[in-house]
Write a structure and sequence with these properties.
Layout lengths: L5 E3 L11 H12 L3 E5 L4 E4 H17 L7 E5 L4 H13 L2 E5 L5 H11 L3 E4 L2 E2 L2 E2 H9 L7 E4 L3 H9 L7 H7 L6 E7 L7 E6 H14 L7 E3 L7 H12 L4 E4 L6 H11 L3 E4 L1 H8 L14 E5 L5 H10 L6 E5 L6 E4 L6 H6 L3 E2 L3 E6 L13 E7 L5 E2 L3 H7 L6 E9 L5 E6 L4 E3 L2 E3 L1 H8 L5 E11 L3 E10 L7 H8 L11 E4 L13 H13 L5
Parallel strand pairs: 2-13, 4-5, 4-6, 5-10, 6-9, 12-13, 12-14, 14-15, 15-16, 27-28
Antiparallel strand pairs: 1-19, 2-3, 7-8, 10-11, 11-21, 16-17, 17-18, 19-20, 20-22, 22-23, 24-25, 26-27
Helix pairs in contact: 2-3, 2-6, 8-9, 10-11, 11-12
The protein binds adenosine monophosphate.
The site of adenosine monophosphate (AMP) has 18 residues, from strand 16, strand 22 and strand 23.
Length: 542
């Protein structure tokens, strides 16, 4: 009988059954005098003992401000020290931190504050073109439950900290020890490509364990220094970065408020980072820096590429040119804390660069037929599903949407198309809705992208389907040209001729300087489809 596409992770190491704060206290006890955090753009460098004392100060301030167990405290900020303080302080006192996407503007802000019922918002005064103080002022009147707004670096932040001096010494400890690790502790709004954002509600147990096992997959110890240029508001930063580091006593290193390729390279070199995180486009941008070779990256050993398809060629370059021999690929989603599969340092180069690895500890995964929901045999494509400790508690106050995502047997339906090989390695081949169907042929955009990465004229490429009267859909490639190259449709098609099936060869090619992205670095394929359709109907196709 052929094996089914079903796998369960190792249970050799037990799940952590304590709260985020209890776990953090153990780290402080073990490694109190070691570096905990470096925030380069704020000139901060603290040991675990120092970080613990600052978290305590914020925790006291929050209790003094009337924040109770289970209250929602929103956090709207790019990466900075206060982000980390609010994360661990809310966890310490059992308040549910609501992560607000730094790119949101008033309509989205109001929606998530209202939907989560946030009692307080802590925020940066602003970021890039967004004046957060103004935008919060604009919506606050319509949000009666929102009692307090606190701005980092402003008087309101000092007042919050000062308020803490009025509460009893034992109040924070009393609260911290009364919490359960299965309490929700974080709401992360995931911005689907359609519809309103949904608040994935995660518990201590969800994210503490995921951070721990992801970092274990990178072999962290207290000597590691983890460069985190990914946004904290997403699990990649606050779970895989922060909780991954603090569960192992490693040091969190933040190069900047937001991703900037040069500051990342400089930070890795000067801070002697051993691990570096990024979505694929971040690594592509660093590798393309003209002065790339002037940075000494020899301290790097490991790291994580995740968030969207990790092209084989980019992985190979990260291993060869960035010294990241033990780099791992993670695959997951916010709703599953986030990681479900990870490659291992011992995997073959082929598996490490060409798959998203195997099932994570204590997690079950399966590939199911999207029509019948039956588990498919190995080697057959279907929908990727996850079950286990990592699956969210649900979407905040949306039982109907929760029931659509998590079935009665506990499987989270991801909407990703994947295939599992005989050894359990998983390949993510696309989103259910990204699949291109041209004249009855099912085409995986990912496959064409991987092929075009091999073209010397191409630095980066995204493939989408556009509607076509004859074939239903046609293949369209958006290309970012390599330096000093100007490939056109002819060049791209000529590169494909004879090497891939004719129906996969892009019918349309658009040259672009950049792709439309979400703030977490996910390319918005639906936007690319819209842009292609607009340009084609305006007759601008090449
Ligand atoms: P988010 O909830 O924002 O973390 O987005 C989750 C989605 O990102 C997944 O459902 C996948 O579509 C995509 N994704 C994450 N990691 C990977 C990966 N390593 N390879 C391919 N797609 C990925």
């Amino acid at each position: 009988m052929t094996d089914l596409s079903l796998a369960s992770g190792s249970t050799d190491i037990a799940l952590i059954e304590e709260t985020i704060d209890a776990n953090f206290q153990r780290t402080v006890k073990l490694w109190g005098d070691r570096d905990a955090i470096v925030v380069r753009h704020q000139n901060i460098r603290w040991t675990y003992k120092e970080l613990d004392a600052r978290i305590e100060e914020v925790a006291r301030g929050l209790i003094a401000a009337g924040i109770e167990h289970g209250d929602r405290v929103a956090l709207w900020s790019p990466n900075r020290i206060e982000w980390v303080l609010v994360q661990y302080a809310t966890a310490r006192i059992g308040a549910i931190m609501v992560c607000v996407n730094p790119a949101y503007r008033t309509v989205e802000l109001k929606y998530v504050l209202q939907q989560s019922g946030a009692k307080m918002i802590t925020a940066a005064p602003g970021f890039k073109t967004g004046n957060y103080e103004q935008q919060i002022a604009d919506v606050a009147d319509e949000l009666p439950q929102l009692e307090t707004s606190v701005f980092f670096g402003r008087q309101s932040w000092n007042d919050l900290l000062a308020g803490g001096s009025e509460i009893d010494d034992g109040a924070v400890r009393e609260r911290a020890t009364s919490l359960s690790n299965t309490d929700p502790i974080n709401i992360q709004y995931t911005s689907g490509t359609t519809g309103l954002p949904k608040g994935a509600t995660l518990t201590h147990r969800n994210i503490l364990n995921n951070g721990y096992f992801v970092a274990k997959g990178c072999g962290y110890t207290e000597t590691d220094r983890v460069c985190i240029p990914v946004p904290l508001y997403h699990c990649f930063g606050m779970v895989m970065g922060n909780l991954g580091s603090t569960t192992h006593g490693a040091c969190m290193v933040f190069p900047d408020e937001a991703f900037e390729p040069q500051s990342v390279l400089q930070t890795v070199a000067e801070e002697r980072c051993t691990s570096l995180y990024g979505v694929p486009t971040m690594f592509i941008a660093q590798l393309a820096q003209p002065e790339f070779d002037t940075y000494d990256l020899s301290s790097l050993r490991t790291g994580i590429m995740a968030g969207s398809t990790c092209p084989v060629e980019v992985m190979k370059q990260v291993i060869e040119r960035m010294h990241m021999d033990a780099v791992t690929i993670c695959y997951g989603m916010t709703e599953t804390s986030p990681v479900s599969t990870q490659t291992g340092a011992d995997d073959s180069l082929e598996h490490r660069t060409g798959t998203v690895g195997r099932v994570h500890p204590h997690v079950d995964i399966r590939i199911a037929d999207p029509q019948t929901n039956a588990t498919v045999p190995r080697g057959v494509q279907g929908e990727f599903q996850t079950r286990g400790y990592s699956v969210m508690k649900g979407y905040w106050n949306e039982p109907q949407k929760t029931a659509e995502a998590i079935d009665s047997e506990g499987w989270m339906h991801t909407g990703d198309v994947a295939v599992m090989d005989n050894d359990g390695y998983v390949d993510i081949t696309g989103r259910i809705k990204d699949l291109i169907i041209r004249g009855g042929e099912n085409i995986s955009p990912r496959e064409i992208e991987e092929f075009l990465y091999k073209c010397a004229d191409v630095e980066d490429v995204q493939v989408v389907g556009v509607s076509d009267p004859k074939y239903g859909e046609e293949v369209c490639a958006f290309v970012r040209a390599a330096a000093n190259k100007q490939p056109d449709e002819q060049t791209i098609r000529a590169f494909c001729e004879g090497k891939i099936a004719h129906f996969k060869i892009p019918r349309y090619v658009f040259l672009v300087d950049e792709f439309p992205m979400t703030v977490t670095g996910k390319i918005q394929k639906y936007r690319l489809r819209e842009i292609a359709m607009e340009q084609l109907s305006a007759g601008e196709a090449s």
